Amino acid sequence: MTWTKKQICSFVDLTSLNSYDSVESIKSFLSDALDFEKKNFPVAAVCLFPNFSALAVNELSNSVLKVAVVAGNFPNSQGFLSTKLNECELALEAGVDEVDIVLNLGELDAGNHDHVVDEIKAFKGLMPNKTLKVILETGYLKTAERIRLASELAIQGGADFIKTSTGKEFPGASLEAVEVMAQVIAEQKSGKKVGLKISGGVRTYEDALQYFEVVEKHLGKPFMTPDLLRIGASSLVRNLMNE
User: Fold this and answer.
1) Residue 88, pLDDT above cutoff 80
2) Catalytic residue among 97, 100, 160, 207
3) Whole-angstrom Cα distance, residue 196 to residue 116?
4) Looking at residue 22, what is its pLDDT?
5) Active site residue 66
6) In order of start, what are the domains of the chain with their CATH numbers?
7) Which one from 84, 124, 130, 197 is the annotated catalytic residue?
8) Of 84, 124, 130, 163, which one is the catalytic site residue?
9) Verdict on whether the full-model pTM lies above 0.85
């Protein structure tokens, strides 16, 4: 299938996750997202820090755009589980549609797989009717075996999406990692459709097409919808509009 630039935009979670984000900068960011929509380049969602949840929900109230937040002590998932869950609860109370959390890499490395699964179950328990995306941090995991294991544990815990990367401390998405994640999703027999989010380093139309080709090869054309596939990006939409 040949994808247009406008179609690619419809898969994007337009992202602002900067340490210097403020009410004013986020208002400008949301204004840009609405402007893209007016110019017929609508994205799937915006993704921001949870303290901006209410602002984003309010600003986008007349838009079709979803509001996603990172939560659970992003980007490292370290801290007390109670505070990580509370952060999610506050965002959900503000009305967000989607929450992106990071899989507990320390417990994964320690071999405490039940703990990893139980923690994700606790997050999903807060949002049975909302979308939970679990970030694997594939740039840290590195090997296909570890990426496969993390994918399987995240899905076992109830992830609605598995996501490559935070885009922070470690390398972002790679075609190799996405291939492994797509294979794991394809093997699921539970009947639940698990989505895939590619995040970190997708900046051009050509980048996006390469990832789409890998995903479609393993998961087929019916999977190629923003309900199941996302790209986390901050510059991609503007690049597509200007190319």
Assistant:
1) yes
2) 100
3) 19
4) 98
5) no
6) 5-242 (3.20.20.70)
7) 197
8) 163
9) yes
